[in-house]
Predict the 3D structure of the following.
Amino acid sequence: MDGKTYQENLMSMCASGQHDPTKKYGIFGILMAVVCFPCGLICLFKDVENRCVRCGAKV
Ligand SMILES: [Zn+2]
């Protein structure tokens, strides 16, 4: 299986709705967590997105 086929297999998984989600923290949330520690941690956990690592779509 070469690289191109591998890539296409991954993309077809995404196309059929089988994404590979990862948590992505927003800049605002991270800043708040540092500046207003520990209360800012609430902002950090609210400012989080689940995004697919392969195609970047929100999941
Ligand atoms: Zn995806």
User: Anything to note?
Assistant: DSSP finds three helices and two strands in the chain. The radius of gyration is 16 Å. Residues 4 and 11 are 11 Å apart (CA to CA).
